[in-house]
Amino acid sequence: MASIKFIPCSLLALVVLFSAADGQLRPDFYAATCTNLASIVRGAMVTAVSAERRMGASVLRLHFHDCFVQGCDGSVLLNDLPPFVGEKSAANNLNSLRGFDVIDGIKASVEAACPGVVSCADILALAARDGTVLLGGPTWAVPLGRRDSTNASFNLASVDLPAPSANVSDLIAAFGRKGFTPREMAALSGAHTVGFAQCRSFRERLYKDGSVDPVFADKLKANCPASGPAGDSFLEPLDVLTASVFDNNYYHNLAVRRGLLHSDQEMYSGTGTEYLAGVVNQYRGSSTLFFAEFAAAMVKMGSIDPLTGAAGQVRAKCRFVNH
Ligand code: HEM
Ligand SMILES: *[C@@H]1O[C@H](CO)[C@@H](O)[C@H](O)[C@H]1NC(C)=O
Ligand SMILES: *[C@@H]1O[C@H](CO)[C@@H](O)[C@H](O)[C@H]1NC(C)=O
Fold first, then answer.
1. Do residue 144 and residue 204 come from a single domain?
2. Active site annotated at which positions (predicted)?
3. What is the pLDDT of residues 180-216, one digit of tens each?
4. Which domain holds residue 56?
């Protein structure tokens, strides 16, 4: 870092110029065109998270589901418009994803301040960062300049998003397809230190998993009976210790077999996971390390296949393609 200050200004300017021409994302993308963007998004997220802490988690998840399915292009936000079926109806998202109203509200405020300039995909990336920070997590500079898709993919939402029943090889493969190392996957999964899951997402784990703490499982069985639809949508915190605080307790839970999802526990207890279990132990021992690696992985996740330059569009409303 120290060496950076010796690089002549002209060279730095050149670097900035090149990265822009390259279609790269950059944190100051809207510096001239939407000066108040960051404060508008942050203000709206403060209101949303004060009203309901869980919203910080819900918006973070929305960004993940956007980025893993045809890139961070706001595709997850598009409504079904028959015969078009979008990502919202896919099994991983239906009756589960939340936060769409919050994003709509932020978009309306941003459009009022800077009409037609800021994409829904960028608003979502900023809101996910702010949600993380408001729950006590790390911050990072959000690279910007994404544009919005004109379509979405119901099929890819089923293919590219891992299921809670996934084993560790499935998970490593799913994250590998998006360019992540197993270590980065372990860091990103730490997002499950906040928010909730429904019984239908962890039922099998309570009744069939060998890798679950029986005391923990028995307690959860009370509201999540062995077969549905009874209890299907009953909510439990992904982090049994501190559901509304972004900390490293997720990893503490894994070490005592109290991960809520089968997929969570697989990172510690799955077959051949000595390496990943070691990473979990490192994050468990140092929230500073976890925060740093989570933030870096979020920047990387936010950079998956963005539409830039003249590709795509800036949607006027996040739920609909412009006419
Ligand atoms: C490792 C693979 C992953 C799997 C299998 C997975 C699966 C799930 C499932 C099943 C739920 C609960 C859904 C429900 O029951 O309605 C959930 C919630 C959540 N996920 Fe993941 N997830 C994964 C990775 C991630 C990543 C990488 C992030 C973000 C960086 C993330 C953020 C969240 C958040 C914050 C929630 C809580 C949302 C809320 O309370 O509204 N997840 N995830
Ligand atoms: C969405 O649009 C992109 C870019 O035009 C295209 O490559 C992709 O195949 C389209 N996806 C679907 C599901 O139509
Ligand atoms: C993981 O699950 C997949 C199916 O999702 C299965 O094909 C594979 O054999 C499993 N791997 C291990 C190591 O259990």
1. no
2. 65
3. 999 999 999 999 999 999 999 999 999 999 999 999 9
4. 24-161
For ligand 2, residues with CB inside 6 Å are: 151, 153
Q: CB–CB of 122/63 below 8 Å?
A: no
Q: What is the pLDDT of residues 206-217, one digit of tens each?
A: 999 999 999 999
- Judge if 267 and 191 occupy the same domain: yes
Same domain, 154 and 225: no
Q: Distance (Å, rounded) from C-alpha 302 to C-alpha 72?
A: 6
What DSSP assignment string belongs to 231-294? Answer: TTT-EEESSSS-TTS-SSHHHHHHHTT--SSHHHHHHHHSTT-HHHHHHHHHHHH-HHHHHHHH
Q: Does residue 167 line the site of ligand 3, with CB under 6 A?
A: yes
Q: Domain containing 196 — which CATH number? A: 1.10.420.10
Residues 79 and 173 grouped into a single domain:
no
* Domain count along the chain: 2
Q: What is the CATH number of the domain that holds 107?
A: 1.10.520.10
Mean pLDDT across the chain, nearest whole number?
93
Q: Higher-confidence residue: 272 or 246?
A: 246
